[in-house]
Amino acid sequence: MVKKSFYLVLLIVAGVLAYYGYQKFFPGEEKRVRLLLTDLAKVTSFSANESLLTRLASANKLPDFFSADVEINVQVPGEGSLAIQGRDEIVRIAGVYRSNFNAAHVEFLDINVALDAEKQSATAELTAKITQVSQRDFGVQELKILLKKINGGWRITRVDTVRTLGS
Amino acid sequence: MAADKPSAELQSWWMRIVFGRRPRRTLVRLIVLVVASVVIFGFVLIPIRIDGISMEPTYRDGRVNFVNRLAYAWSKPKRGDVVAIKTTGMSIMFMKRIVGLPGETISMEKGIVLVNGGPLVEPYVVVKREPWNEPPVRLGPDEYLVIGDNRATDRVSHYHGTVNGRKLAGKVLW
Questions:
Q1: Each residue of B96-149: pLDDT tens digit?
Q2: Domain at A28-162: CATH architecture
Q3: Cβ contact (<8 Å) for A138 and B160?
Q4: More confident call, B9 vs B74
Q5: Phi, psi of B144 (to 5 degrees)
Q6: Which band of pLDDT confidence, cut at 50, 70 and 90, is reported for residue B3?
Q7: What gap in Å lies between CA A11 and CA B54, rounded to an integer?
């Protein structure tokens, strides 16, 4: 009886491990979109004592997240709306953003992903939280992100601010 | 042997303090407490920490409160209610006061909120009001107009506006 229940527990543990292992090594499309967005938040975050090499590595990684013709329309608190077109422009703006602030921590919270039937495009809705590390204040914005599968990988094609409160 | 006796007594005394006279019953109580806490604080009363000054002086920056998610399960939101507004989830919510209800026309003239053309009495606005002006907005069937209590700030930097009823996470408890 004891032996039987031991094997049963072992089987359940093995099943759970196999499930998590499969999810980890063969993530579904939704999971891949989430991972891309989480990685983007990491790449756009930076610390004050970051080395030049790390800074360059992040700058080089940034274009990989976007399609060549990406369009970004976001609201910048205190600055109004900001429209960016193309990957090169993103890298340039990211450079300006890094030089203007000492350190920043970007988080994408409550990510909701909807895939189309063919799993070739996706819409992600999330809440972006940007904290300037030197200050306690943080900025919050709801974003709607459109993604397409290009050459087997997910790329961001459009980003828009969604106003939580209407005018 | 004699030296062991006080230690055993001490152990049983501690065991009684920690697990009670009936450890099985204590375990059941503990499980009930944990399950109740998870259900209450995960789904019914959501703990929040207030960040920012837009609801001052009613709600101070850094204070802790709760959002009652069942507040609007059987009744509609009322004018004057302080509500939490969801973003894409509930990790970050906006805390505002309802000043306009569905179907009403709301405007602002020199900082005074006008509901269908008449001034709204707002005893919670105790600091000096900036002379905000907003054009009339007619609210939809499930639309509310929300503003913070602190009207001493610049109109542009004070986030306010209309919100759909489905975005209301609940009512702030106190």
A1: 999 999 999 999 999 999 999 999 999 999 888 888 999 999 999 999 999 999
A2: Roll (3.10)
A3: no
A4: B74
A5: -125, 150
A6: very low
A7: 55
Residue B118, both tokens: 């008449």
Predicted confidence at residue B168, as pLDDT, reads 96
For the ranges A36-40, A65-69, A153-157, B52-56, which has the lowest average pLDDT? B52-56
Sequence-separated (6 or more) residues with CB below 8 Å from residue A88: A63
Q: Could you write out the three-class secondary structure of A74-85?
A: EEECCCEEEEEE
Which alpha helices (H) appear in A26-163, and where do they start and end?
A: 29-44, 52-61, 87-100
Classify each residue of A121-151 as buried b or exposed e, where b means 16 or more C-beta atoms within 10 Å of its C-beta. ebebbbbbbbbeeeeeeeebbbbbbbbebee
Over B41-59, what HEC string results?
A: HHHHEEEEECCCCCCCCCC
Task: Give A18's DSSP letter.
Answer: H
Q: Which two tokens stand for residue A29?
A: 């499309």
| Domains of chain A, residue spans | 28-162
Q: Given an 8 Å threshold on Cβ–Cβ distance, is A165 in contact with B146?
A: yes
- Pick from B87, B132, B155 the residue to mutate for testing the A interface (most A CBs within 10 Å): B87
A78 with B162: Cβ contact below 8 A: no
What does DSSP assign to residue B60? -
| DSSP code for B4 | H
Q: Measured over all CA atoms, what is the biggest interatomic distance in chain A, rounded to whole angstroms? A: 71
Task: Give the span between the Cα atoms of A95 and A56, in whole angstroms.
Answer: 10
Predicted local distance difference test score (pLDDT) of residue B6: 55
Give the CA angle between residues A78, A81, A84 to the nearest 5°. Answer: 130
Q: Can you say how many angstroms the Cα of residue B140 is from the centroid of all Cα atoms in its chain?
A: 24
